[in-house]
Each structure stands twice: as C-alpha cells, then as structure tokens.
Amino acid sequence: MTFRQFAFNNVLRNMRTYAAYFLSSVFSVLVFFVYAVFAFHPELSGDSLNSGVTQGMLLAEGIIYVFSFFFVLYSMSAFLKSRKREFGLLMMQGMTSFQLRLMVFLENILIGFFATLSGVGLGLVSAKLILMIAENVLDLDDSLPFYFPVEAVLLTFGAFMLLFMSISIFTVMIIRSKGLIELIRGSDKPKPEPKASALLSLLAVLLLGGGYVAALWVRGLMVAAAMIPVTVVVIIGTYFLFTQLSVYLVRYLRNRRHLFWRRTNMLLFSDLAYRMKDNARMFFIVAILSTVAFSAIGALVGFRSMTNNVFRQENPYAFEYTSFRGNPEDVEEQHIRLIEKTLYEEEIDYRRVSGVIRLQEQADTNDAVEVISVSEFNAFATAAGQETVALGEHEALQLYYANGLISGHNEEPYQLRLAGSASVVEVDVIDARESYLFPVYTQMYVLPDHLIDSLKEPVRKMRYHAFEVDNLPATRQAGKRLSEALPGAEGYTFFATEYDLHKVNQSFGAILFVGFFIGAVFFVAAGSFLYFRLYTDLADDKRKFAAIMKLGLTDGELSSVITKQLAILFLVPIGVATVHGAVALTALQHMFNYSLVKESVIVLGGFVLVQLIYFLLIRFRYIRLVKGA
C-alpha cells in the first residue's frame, strides 16, 4: 500500500465523520457555481436591470466564498480534535511528524477535490432546471437558455481548490504544534467542574431583555437608528446566554432534588452542564448564523410582499397619463389616442377618467396647494371603487398621502383661504382622507365645482388621465408597449402599473434569489456545525453509555436520554434564533407600519420544520450508532 493509498483509505474509513462536512462543502460549491452560471450568462449581460442581477450574483459569490473559508477551517479543526488519539498511535508506530502532516494534507486535498468536483457536477446536471426556476423567481421577460458555462466551471474549480489548499496548509500547521503525549491522551483529560457566574447570567437576561424591548418599542425611522446598537447588545447577550446562563440554569435544576432524582434525569443533568459549557461557542455561532438566515430571508420575502401590496394599493389604475404646461394639447391628445388604440389591440376593456389638478396660491402665505373639483374627484373615486364625497357650498376635503415613513395631516377642522380672481375664497376643511387616487403629493384639497371657477389663475395645471380596467395582470404587455412608446419627457409622464410592478418584482426577484441561497448556505452550515460536534463526541458517548447500561439502563431509557440531549443540542440554538428572528421581523414591520406576520410565520416555520426533520433523522442514526447497531 502506497502512502497516497493509505491517505485515501483513511478518508473512506472516516466517511461517517466526514459525510456532513463533505456534503456541506458540496452545497457551498454548488451555490457558488450557480451564481457563477448566472453571472456569466450571455442573456444577463445586456440592459441595466440584468446588469444589476449579475452584480448581485458576483457579490453573493464573494460572501459565500469568504464564509466557506471560515466554515471549512472550523470544520477541519473539529475533525482534527476528534482524531488526536489516532494521530498519536500512528506516531507511536513510527510515523514521522512530516509524514503525519503530509497524510492530513493529502486527506484534506482529496476531500476538497471531490467536493468541488461533485458541486460543479451537480451544478451542470441541474443547470437547466435552476435556470427555469430563476426565470420564474426573477420574473424575466425572456427565457434563459442553457449554455455550457466554461467560465463558471473554471472560476469555481480554481477558487475552491485554492480555498481547500489554503485550509490544508493551515491544518498542517495546527497538527505540527501538538505533542505526542497530548495526542495520545486525546479527549480523556479530566474536565473541570463547569462554573457559571450569576452576575454574567443576570447580564445575559438584561442584555437580551433590553435589546428585545428596544427593538419592539421603537417605531418608524427610529428602528433603523436603533438597529446597530440593538444588534450588538443582543449578540453579546446571546454569547453570555450560552456560556453562562445555560450552565447556571442546569446547575440550578441539578440542585432541585425532586427533579434531579426523577427517573433518568440524574444521568441527563449530570452530563448536560458539561455539554452546555463545551458547546457554548458552537451554540452561539449556530444561533447567530441561523438568525442571519431567518432575518435576511424573512425581510426579503416581507419586502417583496409589502412592495406588491402597497404598489397596487397606491396605484389603483392600470395606466396614468399626466400632462404638464409644456405639453401641447395636440400632443397630449395624440398620446391618449395611442393608449386607447393599444388597449383596443390587446382586447382590454377600460374606462377613462380625466380631470385637472390645479396648484393654487393661498391668500395669507406664499405657499400653494393642489386642488381638484368634487365632481372630478368623485369620478376618479368611482373608477377606483372608492367612496365618493358630498360637500357643502363652502366646505372642502383634505386628501393626504401616507406610508410607513410619512404620515401627517390636520386632525381638527380648520379654514383654508385661497387667492380668488376677485376676492379671497374661504372654505372650511371639514375632514381629511388618506387617498392614492392622484400622482404623488403630500396634501391636496377637494373643492366644490363653483368655487374652482372663482379662484385666481393657477400657478400650474396638470391634466390627469386614468385608465381603469378589471383585470390588471392582463395589461402587462400593453404597459410594456406603451412604456417604450411613451418614455416620458419634460411635458408629460406615463405610468403603467402592472408593467412597472413587473420591473420592480424583477429587481426584488434577483435580490430574493441571491438572499435565499446565501441564507440557505448559512442554515446548512449551522446544521453542519451541530453534526460535527455531535460526531466528535460519539466515541466518548459509546463508552459512557455502554458502561451505564451494564448498571441496568434499559434500551428505552437510553433512547430517552439521548433524545433529550440531542433535542437540546439541535433545538435550543434554533429556538433562540427563532426568537431573535421573530423580534427582528416584528421591528421591521414597526418600521414600515405594515404587518409581516404571515411572511414571518412562513419563513420561520419553514426553517424550524426543516430543522425538526434534520433532528429526527440524526436522532435515529445516532441512537443506532451509540447502541452499536
């Protein structure tokens, strides 16, 4: 057997331990390769929108590559710790320090090579399917044909082989610093009694409680201002939660005799304090990574949902055409005929509503306000399916625009004085209504028709035309044609709701596509960290439980103890991350004054469900291994 064959066989013999690391590395390579396929796709290198998609993919590749470096480094460090005794025995049998380092180097390169090869291979096999999925997610106008991504293959293979080469060199340096006695002793060194500070445990409660209260209390733009300090406080609190508070709680429960002496709780709690202390940093990393995944994907899904709903709410018409002073009436009429002709050709039934929005001077100030007649307002309201208004002879209605960041109007009735052609026109503003019937404005007033004619010549006039249809999605193609024919100029603007929303969704689709896979990489890595730690302790657990079973522990009790320990290992950090994510998404909805409960439940519930399935699969496998089945 050659030395290279020996290294290869070592990898095969440790396949169970390396499985999660290998599969997680394959997943990272696969995602990196997918982004590279899109970044180099010839159909995404044209217009500015597709250029933004490409830039997003390249940014995602950078994030994944940097994260993969630290992920692989941590993974290899965990595996080296679990193989200390094996390395010590090899050195006792005559293996030199150089040969040991060379063996580990070859093993790491071998795993990295096949992980990279497998990731690229899976990417090539599933490339067409991924491109088809992306067409729907990105909501692209044109299809993405399959092409052989030579640049993506070369970039992915070169980048990850360089990564695994660097990690291999680093792990060799770690082994070099270990002495023979330390390697032989492995993990048999007696562990000191885990201790926790009551003061630091209390600090963890205060930091997490204070961070949660601050995140849930602030509103509007204050959420953005509080985000960084709250995040820092919660991260510090999470660290102390796992390193101090968790150990403190286990010690507290262990001192409760009625609980400690019940059934197999003695075995559970005796070992739990050590596990919590040993795994504290890993729990912290998993909780933070999972929180990032939950919050990022939840925020992206929420933003897309909010954008779609708000966009449709604030734009109730299929098309809007606004003509300003610099636009000749004959040109305006020509544009209107073009819109109606296009709708006719697309076989879309419509209703056109027109009106004039005037900018009128106020009598007592230099300010000007926008006004519209009540008859025209009611025509627009009827077309949009909204409530009409009836005004007295000298009454007015205030319209105001509001969203999650902008909101303000006069609550109490007041008097509005406008400059008239002969004298001051006074009206009583009797009510205020939030409205999105007209182009963006802050405040606007609805006046009786007869008062409109008595006002002074307006500072500016806007002739506003709205086209209402029953089936908005059917207007996308017409909107595309008209947006290209009426790109907008100094004298007019044209707005096609469904087509413009389609373009917005394309941008959000690209961001969501990037964010989802980055979040998925983080989540898979978090689960892998748990898997690595679990199988690092497998040999010790087998010896420990084998000895205890000789004292009378039944198979059912053994399964119960292991299930409880695994549940704590897998579900506690995910549970903490779920709470963190729920608070973060609640703060986000407070920022925009928009409910994201549905989106939060879907995202958080989906991740928790995946983790539960992962836990059940690992539990089944681990119990069999501990029992020696």
| SSE sequence, one letter per element | HHHHHHHHHHHHEHEEHEEEEHEHEHHHH
**Secondary structure: number of strands:** 9
User: What's the overall geometry?
Assistant: elongated
The biggest beta sheet reads:
9 strands, mixed
User: What is the typical, i.e. mean, pLDDT?
Assistant: 80
What is the radius of gyration?
33 Å
Widest β-sheet, arrangement of strands? 5-6-4-7-3-2-8-1-9
**Poorly predicted parts:** none
Question: What's this model, at a glance?
Answer:
The chain has helices spanning 3-13, 15-39, 48-82, 84-92, 97-138, 150-176, 180-185, 198-217, 222-254, 257-260, 265-278, 280-314, 329-345, 374-383, 449-452, 476-485, 497-536, 538-549, 555-592, 597-627, and strands at residues 319-323, 351-361, 368-373, 395-400, 414-418, 425-434, 443-447, 460-468, 492-496. The chain is an alpha+beta fold and 629 residues long. A 9-stranded mixed sheet has the order 5-6-4-7-3-2-8-1-9, sandwiched between helices.
Question: Can you describe this structure?
Answer:
This protein is α+β, with helices and mostly antiparallel strands and 629 residues long. It contains 20 helices and 9 strands. It has helices at residues 3-13, 15-39, 48-82, 84-92, 97-138, 150-176, 180-185, 198-217, 222-254, 257-260, 265-278, 280-314, 329-345, 374-383, 449-452, 476-485, 497-536, 538-549, 555-592, 597-627, and strands at residues 319-323, 351-361, 368-373, 395-400, 414-418, 425-434, 443-447, 460-468, 492-496. It has a 9-stranded mixed β-sheet, with helices on both faces. Helix 8 packs antiparallel against helix 9, helix 9 (222-254) runs antiparallel to helix 19 and helix 18 (538-549) crosses helix 20. The longest helix has 42 residues, at 97-138. The two termini are 31 Å apart. The mean pLDDT is 80.
